[in-house]
Structures are given as structure tokens and as C-alpha cells.
Design a protein that fits this description.
The protein has 89 residues and is mainly α. Helix content is 58%, strand content 7%. The chain has three helices and two strands. The chain is elongated and about 75 Å long. InterPro entries: DUF6191.
Length: 89
């Protein structure tokens, strides 16, 4: 039983790598999308880390305005926007 499982697993790896090499030859060398999908299987946290970096860039505070974090103050227009802090789980 254990030997059969090992043979099946080994065969699947061979088929996977054969398919990847065929795909790279046919559609051009890069294979970035293929390796990214395969890497996500083995390193699922990588996607989470990338999403977190993108979120930090989009939520970056404008420290030049002098407003508290998450708020903006425009002295020329005479407006101030104050946003409540998000609730933490």
C-alpha cells in the first residue's frame, strides 16, 4: 500500500514537471504565472504578505497635512475630514 502511494505521488510529480516544461517551450520561456501558482501551493503566506504590503501603501497617512492618522486637513479650502479608527477584532 505504501509503495503504491509512493509510486503514484512520484508519477504525479513527473507529469507535473513534464507539463510545465512543455508549457514553457510552447508559450515562451518566462512561466511567471505558472511558477507563482505553484509557489502559492507551497507558500500560501507569500500572497498574504504581498496583499499586506499593497494595503499599507494604499492606506499610508499623509503626514504633511499635520492631521491625525486617517484624517486630512486642507487649510486652503478650509475643510477637514476626520475618519473614525477601524475596530480591531
Amino acid at each position: 500500500m505504501l509503495m503504491t502511494v509512493g509510486i503514484v505521488a512520484g508519477s504525479l510529480w513527473i507529469v507535473l514537471f513534464a507539463w510545465v516544461s512543455w508549457h514553457r517551450r510552447r508559450f515562451g520561456g518566462g512561466g511567471g504565472a505558472n511558477t507563482e501558482a505553484l509557489a502559492e501551493v507551497f507558500h500560501p503566506s507569500r500572497r498574504h504578505v504581498q496583499e499586506q504590503k499593497e494595503r499599507r501603501l494604499s492606506l499610508r497617512d499623509n503626514t504633511d497635512s499635520g492631521a491625525p492618522p486617517g484624517s486630512t486637513v486642507d487649510l486652503d479650502a478650509g475643510t477637514a475630514v476626520v475618519r473614525p479608527r477601524p475596530k480591531r477584532p
